[in-house]
Specification:
proton-transporting ATP synthase activity, rotational mechanism, ATP synthesis, Pyruvate Kinase, Chain: A, domain 1, ATP_synth_F1_gsu, ATP binding, Helix Hairpins, alpha/beta
Length: 292
């Protein structure tokens, strides 16, 4: 009888846990949809800005501080992580990639409590940390842009990179290390089928006589900090989409595992209950036979 009560207690406890994980799954699913839409919607703008910067940069002969390499032994890395757990191996995969690097000359600017805990445990040089849930993505991107641009312009570091989980799909997020400064134009391919952005890009590349107002150097002076801002902002959106996707999948797996465990415990409960009933019947039959 004690065994039956223990199984019933475990079934009740697991059912309560599955209700919590299912509720978290639904909340993460709603946040995931919004964050995925934001990340995917901003990608064409980032791509188009890269194309524009390529056109402007090719026509400018004036050196710019954000394009030239600096002489400094230090490097700066922006690490984008989540504030909370329950995201499976999302943060752990980022930390594994960082562990492969020589972290001796790195300075870290961290977004997310998990990244802050990682840099503290590893004894890394942490110069700034931010909580992502307390800041809007664009405001956070502006703050990070000012920090890294000022540090690079003052030759405090020779390179600025950003480590973040690149959103590929709901079940796939790839740890990505991208150079931010000095600026290097990345060639990201967009889908070729019926893509107006790609057709527009190819058409602009065929144009050789372009007029710039104001001058090319003035445009470059304005567009380079904005390009850094856009790149950091896009990485933040990718991180948000990856975080909510990973959490939704993790909570769904936890809910499914809880339901499977409840089924196994229910079967064990029915078996134990049947054994108890059979034993009681045998005792009754044995006692009745003794009186006859």
């Amino acid at each position: 009888m004690a065994q039956i009560r223990e199984i019933k207690r475990r079934i009740k406890s697991i059912n309560n846990t599955s209700k919590v994980t299912h509720a978290m799954e639904l909340v993460s699913a709603a946040k995931m949809r919004r964050s995925q839409e934001a990340a995917l919607a901003s990608r064409p703008y980032t791509y188009t800005l890269s194309e524009i910067l390529t056109q402007v940069k090719s026509r400018s002969e004036k050196p710019h501080t954000l394009l030239t390499e600096k002489e400094s032994p230090k490097q700066m890395m922006i690490l984008l992580t989540s504030d909370r757990g329950l995201v499976a191996g999302l943060n752990l995969n980022l930390f594994r990639e960082i562990a492969k690097l020589d972290m001796k000359n790195f300075q870290f600017v961290v977004v997310g409590k998990k990244g802050q805990n990682f840099t503290t445990k590893t004894g890394s040089d942490l110069i700034a940390s931010f909580i992502s849930d307390e800041n809007e993505p664009l405001d956070l991107a502006r703050t990070l842009t000012k920090v890294v641009v000022d540090a690079y312009a003052n030759s405090e570091v020779n390179r600025v990179s950003i480590m973040y989980p690149d959103f590929q799909s709901t079940v796939k997020q790839i740890p990505t290390l991208t150079q931010v400064l000095p600026i290097e134009i990345e060639k990201k391919e967009l889908p070729t089928t019926n893509n107006p952005l790609r057709e527009r890009s190819e058409a602009s590349q065929r144009q050789t006589d372009l007029l710039f107002e104001p001058s090319v150097d003035d445009i470059l002076e304005s567009i380079l900090p904005h390009y850094v801002l856009t790149k950091i902002y896009q990485a933040i959106l990718e991180t948000k989409a990856s975080e909510h996707s990973a959490r939704m999948v993790a909570m769904k797996n936890a809910t499914d595992a809880a339901n499977d465990l409840v089924e196994d415990l229910t079967l064990a409960y029915n078996q134990a209950r049947q054994e108890a009933i059979t034993k009681e019947l045998l005792d009754i039959i044995t006692a009745q036979s003794a009186f006859e």
